Amino acid sequence: MSIVDLEVHQVMSKIKGYIITLTQFPTPEWAITHSKSCTDKLIKSIKDTQTEIEPIVFRATEYKSLKEDLKLITYIDTSNLEYTYPMLHEGRERITGLYMMPPAPHEDVRFRIACMISHMRLWQKCIDMDEPIVVLEHDAIFTHKFKKEYILEHKDFLGGVCGLNTPIRATREDKHYAILLNELGYGIHTVPSILHPDGVVDGKEIPSGLPGNSSYIITPLAAKALLKKTKEVGMWPNDVVMCKQLMGDWVQIAHPHFSEIQIHNSSTTQIQ
pLDDT tens across 37-53, in order? Predict the structure, then answer.
């Protein structure tokens, strides 16, 4: 194999990784600068760990482009799609009966919706490309080498979604989540129930999903299933809709992890 052929083979063997990045008005300039800085660190970490991902900067949905960006999703009819997740008070979701916690008081729900639509657009892209992709938020960073074969060819991968992030700093129950993963051991596992027993607290079943959703691999089959489920229950935060109560054993996580959260506050859901 010639050097040129080898380089072409190496490029073709890489999975595309789309980095959700704030790029345009009306996002404040400081947030765009912060997002770009995070994205640059993420791309550098891909190179430093020799991770076999082709990084592609992906324009994040802004709160003023919600309706227009929603039209880019064509696998389902989004014309009457509404955000059904509790905005102010905790309580049971009307269709599933799952117990939902609202966003923190300082968060603007419009940015949560924008983040969800960014992920939905990438699920649509995965369907259009008809191949697995890696979805990355700008605040992820790779700590260990990753290549698609580690997941897609693993005997325990069920062909859906697999989280690549450590739960540390990525979820409220990060330490408990990490303990559960350690108990499961190395491998690919269906996401654990974060609160015992089976995600139930005082009879209130909460969604059990990936920690933060800032780094995951997804297949076209799973992307179709997630969009169908979103059409069924309405728009929820992306890290809530991707839970095992809705998607079953398809929602999995790798242990040990390949990536983690950069140390700072998210600028995708906390812009004031």
Answer: 999 999 999 999 999 99
Angle between helices 220-233 and 109-129 in degrees, nearest 10 = 140
Per-residue pLDDT tens over the stretch 212-224: 789 999 999 999 9
State the amino acid at position 256 in one-letter form.
Answer: P
Residue carrying the six token digits 């309706």: 67
Place of tokens 């905790």: 90
Global pTM reads 0.87
CA 155 to chain centre: 23
Distance (Å, whole) CA 250 – CA 8: 32
Taking the CA of residue 36 as centre, how many other CA atoms within 13 Å lie in the half-sphere pointing to its CB? 9
Give Cα separations from 36 to 57, 187, 211 (angstroms): 9, 33, 23
Distance CA 244, CA 210 (A): 9
How many Cα atoms sit within 13 Å of 115 on the Cβ side?
25
Q: Which residue has the tokens 């430093």?
A: 48
Quick one: CA dihedral 149, 153, 155, 156, positive or negative?
positive
pLDDT at 174: 79
CB 268 within 8 Å of CB 212: no
The domains located in the chain, with CATH, are 3-261 (3.90.550)
Q: Which of 136, 24, 133 is nearest to 69 (CA)?
A: 24
